[in-house]
C-alpha cells in the first residue's frame, strides 16, 4: 500500500513539474514557433514596411522581395507589404520601433536611416533596430536635359568650381539626405566647394519636371529613375556612382564618375531590419532566407531589370558596415553644417 502511495505521489509531482515548466516557458515570452531544436520559423503572416510611398526604391525592393520569397518557395507564409510614408522614412521607423521583439515585422531601408537621424529629422537610427541582411546595391545618376551644354561630369564640375551657386541641383530627398549627399560626395572629390552648392528639394514628384522645364540644371536621382527618360531622348546622364559600368540596356551607356577621373563612388545599399530586441533564432532564420533570395535565379532577374548589383551581408557584417558608413556620412554633414 505504501509503495502504491509513493508511486502515485511521484507521478503527481512529475505532472505538476511538467505543467509548471510549460507555464514558465510561455510566461517568459518564448515563441510558440520555436521548436525543440531552438530553430524558429514563422507560423503567421509577415509584414514588410516600405517607409515611403508606392513606386520608389524602398517600395520596389520590398515588393520584389516578398514576391520572390513566395513564388520561389523560400518562405511559405504570406508576406504583405505596407507603405508608411513620411519624414524621409521616419514614420515607418517609428511604426516598427513600436513592434518591439516581433519576428513578424520587417522594414526595408538604405542610407537615409543614417542620414535622417544625423540631420536631426528622426529620433530613430539604425542602432535602434535589428539588422537582418543587406541584399542589393543601387547607384546614383546625375542627369541634365538632353540639350544641356554639359556632356560629362568634368564639364559640369569645371563650371561649378568657377561659381557653384550658379548651377541648381534638384533631388527628391530633403537637404542632408540621400539625393543631396550622393551629389555632394562626388562633387567634393572633383574639387567643388560643396558648401556653396545650390541644392533644392522637391519631395512631391516634380524634380524631373523642373529639370525638363529649365527651372533647375542637374537632377540627382537613382539610376533606374533615368532609363525611360533617356530612351525618350529627354535627358542625358553625365555620370553614375558605381565602381564599374552597369550592365543592361541603356545602363551600360552611362559612364561612371571614376572613369571620368573622379575618385569617388556612392552606394545606395538596400537591406532589411527587424524591430528592436528580435530573438536571435529569428535573426538566423531571416539571414538564411535572404541569402537564399540573393542567390536565386528569380532575384537575379529582378536585379538585372532594375540595374541593381548583388550585395548580400549577414546581420553582423551589415551592422559593422552601417557603423562605418555612418562615420563617413557624418563627416560630409559636418562640413555642410547639417549634422545635429
Automatic annotation (TrEMBL):
Region (Disordered), start-end ranges: 22-42
Signal peptide start and end residues: 1-19
Entry protein name: Tricarboxylic transport TctC
InterPro entries per UniProt: BUG, Bug_dom1
UniProt family annotation: Belongs to the UPF0065 (bug) family.
Keyword Signal in record: yes
Pfam families per UniProt: TctC
Organism of this sequence: Lentibacillus populi
Keywords tagged on the record: Signal
